[in-house]
Amino acid sequence: xxxxxxxxxxxxxxxxLVPEISGASVVLDTGTPSTAGLPYTLNGTTxxxxxxxxxxxxxxxxxxxxxxxxxxxxxxxFTIALYDAAGFTGNYPNQLFSSxxxxxxxxxxxxxxLAWTPGTAGEYWVALEVGLNDSAVGxxxxxxxxxxxxPALAFASNQGNGxxxxxxxxxxxxxxxxxxxxxxxxxxxxxxxxxxxxxxxxRAAKRA
Length: 208
Description:
alpha+beta; Jelly Rolls; 43% strand
């Protein structure tokens, strides 16, 4: 029974250290834009955004935008920003997170290694911007984006006077991970090993 006595503490430690696993999901997918639509220009004075729902325990891991070169070259950078929905359409929205990304080729561009978790569940905005530290001068955003698996709650744009509702339907995708409780079978395994360990100790005591 030495194996059982050793295996149980190991299994119990594993269950304690890894109480849950994560499952990936798409929380925003506006669809792939039509190349027939006239593109909008993403530069230092025009910003674009879409609204989506996010759970309190979900962690955003990736944001992708459908872009074409416009006036830029592969390697030119832009900014992905996340905002609180409260007061978003004002002159000074509450930015919660930002990350620099690069345009590489016509199509989906962005970042797949983000890690941002909201404090509460609710509605949030993801925005495409060109900040002071970015090199992009005029990336193109084809429209309209349709047929996505998780449509935007709303679109918005900023023409220099604060975000306003009713922006163009651009291509945006946001992925997130959701904690998933460890399957009950893992706890049953730990319980079984506990029983085996107790039985082993009992037999050892009787032999003594």
